[in-house]
Amino acid sequence: MELLDPASxxxxxxxxxxxxxxxxxxxxxxxxxIIALLEQMxxxxxxxxxxxxxxxxxxxxxxxxxxxxLGPAVLGGQIDLIYQDGAGEWHIVDYKSDRIGAEGPAGHxxxxxxxxxxxxxxxxxxxxxxxxxxxxxxxxPAAAEPIELSPAALAEAEDRAAALxxxxxxxxxxxxxxxxxxxxxxxxxYGALCGTAKDLA
Length: 201
Hints:
The protein has a five-stranded mixed beta sheet. It is globular and about 55 Å long. It is an alpha+beta fold and 201 residues long. The chain has helices spanning 12-23, 32-46, 49-55, 109-127, 151-174, 191-194, 196-200; strands at 59-70, 73-84, 90-96, 133-138, 143-147. It folds into two domains: 1-47, no CATH class; 52-201, Lambda Exonuclease, Chain A (Alpha-Beta Complex). It is 43% helix and 21% strand. The chain contains seven helices and five strands; from the N terminus they run αααβββαββααα. The mean pLDDT is 88.
């Protein structure tokens, strides 16, 4: 998606070949199943209003790195896409490749809400104005879900992130990492810190 030119979209095979060369993916770039899946995703995106808006954008930044202070920590990240429309308003898009089931894309929004609010807060600090819109764009169903960007939601997200940073700093200093014991623990790469990995084994 970083390489896609929305004003003159490239063929899926060409995009995959270029990405494959840059990332040294080798034969993956020739996989017919992957090419077919990408073609389907691109077709859906090209008919979506986000793609149309992006093709007319005054400015667009892809894979935009950021860092901002939050409480005792500095949060770093990378915004998939931020663009400025003809009216001068900024829009944030984060692409997701989740496999969407019967619950639909809306069922996946909650897990990414804090991430998107922090992206919006970082963009607001950088550009001097809060973004007008933030959307999660799900590639497989070609559907976008908006994230509320009210001043209250942005402030609450910054407070939450600062509190989480404080908890992490305290845990690192004390070497005491509390357990969550929920579904996320199964895939957490830091399970050794709280003992979850040993218990799951």
